[in-house]
Amino acid sequence: EAGVVQSPRYKIIEKKQPVAFWCNPISGHNTLYWYLQNLGQGPELLIRYENEEAVDDSQLPKDRFSAERLKGVDSTLKIQPAELGDSAVYLCASSLGLAAGSYNEQFFGPGTRLTVL
Amino acid sequence: QKEVEQNSGPLSVPEGAIASLNCTYSDRGSQSFFWYRQYSGKSPELIMSIYSNGDKEDGRFTAQLNKASQYVSLLIRDSQPSDSATYLCAVNPRVGDKIIFGKGTRLHILP
């Protein structure tokens, strides 16, 4: 079974430029998560989707960040314009979702390391 | 504010010994608990899930949960150099709620 796929793996951009990340979750996983992880910190949730619906985007900086999951499968996360402080690893994860109840194990993709110069 | 606390380490353990990693959480009603292993430059990998009080064993790993004390731990028996990594504790307070991650404990197994 294929795991969570993310691209690109690395991205270097100059500040004020736009950037987009793509994620393909594990087949059959209804819930998709975007996390941000800074060095020495645990992952921090940016947005969570149940199928096509964003059910938790309270931590997403909506002035510059946007996300979509149009068909309930793949998702993209966009930053426009990027700032120096956005340099971090962006992780995508997926899980079975509410159908799994408490047993909602999340599995992570390899992540995208973003460097903003 | 729901919190998950871990000692950042590094925790140094001789090869072959038992490594003990600890985690406390603030939400008494939390239902699901997870341990992730993260190698440097890699993404977190799920290694253990536990939902009921007591011990759960999987190979060299044992997860221990004590809901009354709001405490979850991970024991690694016969530690190997390949176990050197950061271990993240994660807690799901409620069904449908978001998982909260601790900052992780760095474990170093001494050859």
How is the topology of this model organized?
The complex is a heterodimer of chains A (117) and B (111).
Chain A: E1 5-7, E2 10-13, E3 19-24, E4 31-37, E5 44-50, E6 53-56, E7 65-68, E8 75-79, E9 88-95, E10 107-108, E11 112-116
Parallel strand pairs in A: 2-11
Antiparallel strand pairs in A: 1-3, 3-8, 4-5, 4-9, 5-6, 7-8, 9-10, 9-11
Chain B: E1 4-5, E2 11-14, E3 19-25, E4 32-38, E5 45-50, E6 54-58, E7 61-66, E8 71-76, E9 85-92, E10 100-101, E11 105-110
- Count of beta strands of chain A: 11
How many strand elements of chain B?
Answer: 11
Give a short account of the largest sheet of chain A: 7 strands, mixed
Overall mean pLDDT of chain B: 95
Low-confidence stretches of chain B: none
Q: What fraction of residues of chain A sit in β-strands?
A: over 45%
Kindly state the percentage of residues in helix of chain B: under 10%
Major sheet summary line of chain B: 6 strands, mixed
Radius of gyration of chain A, in angstroms, nearest whole number: 14 Å
Distance between the termini of chain A: 37 Å
Largest interface: A-B, 22 and 24 residues
Morphology call of chain A: globular
Q: Helix/strand/pairing class of chain B, anyone? A: mainly beta
Considering DSSP H and I runs of 4 or more, what fraction of the residues of chain A is helical? Answer: under 10%
Structural class of chain A: mainly beta
Termini separation of chain B comes to: 40 Å
Order of helices and strands of chain A: EEEEEEEEEEE
| Overall geometric form of chain B | globular
